[in-house]
Every structure is written in structure tokens, then in C-alpha cells.
Amino acid sequence: MSMARARKLGPIPLSWWGGGLAIGLILIIATALAEPIGVSAQYVVLDGVLLHALAPATVEQSPYLEKTAKGWTLQTYEFFFVLGIPLGAFLSALATRRLSTRVVPSEWAARFGYSPAKRLAWSFVGGFLLLFGARFGGGCTSGHMISGISQLAVSSMLFTAALFAGAMLTVRYLYPYPNRPNREGRA
Amino acid sequence: MKLLLGLILGGAFGAVLQMSGASSYTKMTNALRLRDFTIIKLILMAIGVGMIGVNLLDALGLANIRIKDLYVLGILAAGLIFGVGLAVSGYCPGTALAAAAEGKPDAWATVLGGLLGAAVFAFLFPELEEHLLSIGSYGKITLHGELGIAGIWLAVPLGGLFIWLAFRLPLKGETR
After folding, report:
1. A118 touches chain B (CB under 8 A)
2. What would the pLDDT profile of A90-145 be if each residue is shown by its tens digit?
3. Under an 8 A CB cutoff, do B93 and A164 touch?
4. Which of A17, A183, A96 is nearest to B169 (CA)?
């Protein structure tokens, strides 16, 4: 079967409870020393700093950009937190031998085929919707779901409920029943 | 110093996301398909621990609390859009960065799409603010604030419930 083409990675090195506990502790430390964790605003900050450098006239049309990317600088605690994510992930993937250059995830390929262009295009569209939605709602999985619910914020609970509704309905449409049997060893 | 702190905390966050499989398209998709509860259990555990810890800090006066505004219609629309994006890409804004660092090209596409989506929102914001962000606007409200009690009184039972649920859920869901 074509699935054999997918390169097998090692097992996931961290258990769900180890990972969950660690993320909880990171949130607690961050809230004590700086502020609760958040990611999505830094996409706007990077946009703002790039646009400010490349096309200064355009940024004046967006007060939101000016407010979010305060001072047009990347040298902030918040940006460095987000910069840390790929750095940490790269080092841990290297250490646990889980670096992967696969373009099409096996689950996607089984349903939509092996076309890299198709997967890349839809990933791009997905990313667009993710950040449009996150900035619209004022946060993402980190800022709303993890930080926001932990602080018992009502907006974050509502955002999370809508998020799951949107995601589960979409996934049901993308992967309709009857499902293929779940194969083991894939991650 | 603050920059270094950010880099270290973010680095730890990214490493944990990567090592617990949260940056895997298949894991994320199968979580949404209710076939593999690893990521759901991870999130429940993270929120349970975080909720108790953050509110304990707050009770001691040590927490830098940041509550997000509630604007009902906008938040609902935003959450739905975000959810569609999550289902289509298989990543969220944080795990896309972790997956990109693992070398996955589709996660790079998600990050680039995200930068465009964030930019489009930034330029549409005045319009959206006028029409959607003002509907059902209640400001920075919290559950405990509405009840008029300290957060810790809700955080301990609710956080405990989240952690209990995390252990209670099976690792694998239905396979049809």
C-alpha cells in the first residue's frame, strides 16, 4: 500500500500528562515573571515591522498595526517568546530524531492524495483563516484557550467553544464517515 | 534580561509542543475526529494546572493577569473562522511554528498564510470594529468576577475537574 512511502518517525517522547503539566507550569512561570502566554499577536508585529521597513506609507493606513507593533521593534519579551517556539521545537526534534521534511501528512494523503501543491495551498489557506480568526478574536490556542480559560475569562471560553464547533464541523466535512480503519504507529 | 526570559520560556513551550506530538497534523486531525485524545488530554491538563497555579499566584498578588475583551458576536465569528483554519491546516499559530521548525513544509505554508491573514485583518480592523466588535460588548469579564468571588475558589474545583477529565478520557477514541 502507498502508506509505506511515509517515513516512520520514532514514538512521541513526551506523554500527554508530562506535556500538559509542563505547559501549565510554563504558563504559571510566565504569568508570574512577565505575562500569560500568547502567540498570534506576534504575527501582526512581524507584519508591521516588515511593512514599516519595506513600505512605510502602507502602515499608516492601519492604526491597528501601529498599536500592535508598538515602536516597530521585534525586541520585546512577547516576540522573543514566540521566536523561542521554533528554536525549542527544532532542538527537541533534533535531539529526539523527529525532524521531518514530509510535505503531505499521511492522514491527508490517504484522503486527498499525494499532491504536494494541493496540501501546501490548503495549508496556506488554513493559516490565513487561523490568524485572521485569532486576531479577530484577540487570541489563539495559547492566548485564549490556555491562558484565557486559566484566568477564567468569559471571552476565552466562548472563543474556545466556537473554535471546537468550527473545527469539528470542518473536519467532519473533510473526513466524512465511514472512516478508514485507524492504522497504528502514525503520528 | 526580559528578552532572554522570553526566549527561554518560548523555547521550553516549543520543545514541549513538539515532544508531545501537538505539532503533528495527524494527531491534531485525529483529535478533532475524536479518534485520538492525546492532544485533548494534553490541553485539559495544561489548563487544569495553569488555572490552579495562576489563580493561586493571583491570590498572593503575584500574577500579571491579562483578561481579553468579550464581544459576543465577534468572538463567536472569530472562533469559528479559527476553527476552520485549524481543521484545514492541522496546526494552530503556535504549533505551526513548532512544526515548521521540525522541517515540515506544509507548516511553513501555514505560517506564511498566517502572516497574510494577520495583515489583512490589520487593514480591515476599522471596518470590523465598527460593525462587529461593538455588538454584545461586555469588556474584560471573568467567571469569578461575575460571581463576586476570588478566582481561586473557582479555579481549584474547575481546574481539578479538568485534570480529572484529562486522566479519565481514554487515549484512543472510536475507530470506525
Report:
1. no
2. 999 999 999 999 999 999 999 999 999 999 999 999 999 999 999 999 999 999 99
3. no
4. A17
